[in-house]
Specification:
Length: about 190
């Protein structure tokens, strides 16, 4: 089980500001290892305690949050993004080209919330979007979960089991194998 983030462990805003450049550099490297591009517009960035903690710090920084009660509330929000032993947690990142019509591009991605899976061997785990969009265009930076039963979890942890991310939406079809260091890190998340 991933240890929840607690207020007492957080750096002060002043201390975070001093460490921010080094932490940001480390975080970019870690997020790169945990990012799985799928097609030419989407990536899944699989969250872990470190990536979630960094996002919390960035929120503290941008909103100037220093009050313990407010920090406690933020910790609760961000702790909900942590993976568990039977769940992978990801942020769906939409990569739009410069000058793109954002609304039009997001509309083109409609339907991905019911057409996205993590394929583990012969099984398919549906992506569970935090905010279902219905007929509306998908929102950028959606939080997604993949829930595993014991069989699927053990299959994922066996290196010989093929794992794919797959989207079969009306206007967006792509799949990508989850391999290498990314696969190893995600297997650790399920431990």
């Amino acid at each position: 089980m991933v240890k929840p983030i607690e207020v007492e462990e957080l750096l002060s805003l002043a201390d975070y500001e001093k460490a921010r450049l080094d932490l940001r550099r480390q975080m970019l490297a870690l997020r790169k290892q945990r990012r799985v591009p799928i097609g030419n517009r989407l990536s899944f960035v699989f969250e872990c305690r470190e990536t979630v903690l960094f996002q919390l710090y960035e929120t503290m920084r941008s909103e100037g949050i220093a009050d313990k009660a407010a920090l406690g509330a933020e910790c609760a929000v961000y702790n909900a993004m942590l993976p568990t032993s039977h769940e992978l947690s990801a942020t769906l990142v939409i990569d739009l080209p410069e000058g793109a019509n954002v609304r039009q591009e997001l509309q083109r991605l409609a339907g991905i919330e019911t057409s996205s899976w993590l394929v583990v061997g012969d099984g398919q785990l549906p992506a569970r979007f935090e905010v279902p969009t219905g007929p509306e265009p998908v929102a950028p930076n959606q939080h997604i979960r993949f829930l595993f039963n014991d069989v699927e979890r053990h299959a994922f942890q066996r290196a010989e089991t093929p794992v794919l991310l797959k989207i079969e939406a009306p206007n967006y079809n792509a799949q990508t194998a989850v391999v290498g260091e990314t696969r190893r890190l995600l297997g650790e998340d399920l431990s």
